[in-house]
Write a structure and sequence with these properties.
Length: 170
């Protein structure tokens, strides 16, 4: 079991003085109160430690989370939800049966197959006009077409289909 720290546990703690770091720096000629660097104009204050207080992963400040293949950057839309999840929620909200995805085609050589799924929503079939390089993306594309037909997602989302494709399949 991981012992997670409390948010203000270290805010009340006294700043560290001395220690191994200060000892090593004094050995190299540094004196307390002097700046760092050749001209002694660098930082005079120690680096503040920022402790992680949640169980989320580490992300640098200003860094965006990285997509695995970049395939779903255009597919994810409303509130960062995946189109399949969004379609399931829409069907649930309208008290319809859950959508049914059916593989229409999977053509191409084994090393570069293309997949096309259709989705049945409330008795209506929705099918994209183009195939996708993997099944996951093909299902998401079918869900996006259905969401567009339902008026939940804007029509422009599928207009630039090349942004859906994985970097390895361009």
């Amino acid at each position: 079991p991981q012992a997670w720290i409390k948010k203000d546990q270290f805010l009340r703690a006294a700043p560290v003085t001395g220690g191994m770091g200060a000892q090593l720096m004094r050995k190299m000629g540094w004196r307390e109160g002097e700046g760092l660097g050749k001209n002694k104009e660098g930082s005079k204050e120690p680096i503040l430690v920022d402790f992680k207080t949640d169980r989320k992963g580490l992300v640098a400040v200003g860094e965006k989370t990285q997509k695995r293949h970049g395939a779903f950057s255009a597919v994810k839309d409303l509130a960062g939800k995946h189109p399949i999840s969004l379609l399931m929620e829409a069907c649930n909200k309208r008290r319809w049966a859950p959508p049914t995805f059916v593989l229409v085609t999977d053509n191409g050589p084994d090393h570069r197959k293309c997949f096309l799924f259709k989705v049945m929503v409330n008795g209506v079939e929705h099918k994209p006009t183009f195939a996708s390089p993997n099944k996951k993306l093909a299902k998401a594309t079918a869900a996006t077409v259905a969401l567009q037909a339902l008026g939940i997602v804007p029509k422009e989302l599928l207009a630039n289909a090349t942004s859906f494709r994985s970097a390895s399949h361009n």
